[in-house]
Design goal:
The protein has 129 residues and is mainly α. Helix content is 53%, strand content 12%. A three-stranded antiparallel β-sheet has the order 1-2-3, covered by helices on one side. Helix 1 packs parallel to helix 2. The chain is globular. The model has no long low-confidence stretch (mean pLDDT 90).
Length: 129
């Protein structure tokens, strides 16, 4: 996948901000391929699902925010959750706090990403209620 220079820089800024979070996870990794671009790879059970290609920054943020939700809702042993439910008010606050702390490391785009996070949480609630 060929990214525009601007899109590649934005993806790199997001990955740099989330580097500590990603490195601390045993369930997934984000890797780069010159041919396929950035890929989200489940490492706890690689045969369970194919790598997911990340086409744009919003794809990456969606996957990262979803993983943070999983950390809050169901501390787990794998990327596969058995049941899905909406977030309690406290869980939603916890997700926002965890993600916002990381997003603040991207000073030029923090507000945009926080808006995306708020929309993600709202959409998550609607999908899982």
């Amino acid at each position: 996948m060929v990214y525009s220079e601007e899109m590649k820089k934005e993806l790199d800024r997001i990955l740099n901000a989330f580097e500590g979070y990603i490195d601390g996870q045993n369930f997934f990794d984000v890797v780069y391929s010159k041919k396929a671009g950035y890929l989200w790879v489940a490492v706890d059970d690689p045969g369970a699902q194919a790598p997911e290609q990340i086409s744009e920054p919003e794809d990456l943020l969606y996957l990262l925010f979803n993983d943070i939700v999983n950390d809050v809702v169901a501390p787990r042993q794998s990327t596969s959750l058995t049941e899905s439910s909406g977030l309690t008010e406290q869980e939603a606050l916890d997700v926002r706090s965890r993600a916002a702390t990381i997003l603040e490391m991207i000073p030029d785009d923090t507000d945009e990403y926080l808006d995306y996070l708020d929309g993600f949480i709202q959409d998550y609630q609607e999908r899982h209620s």
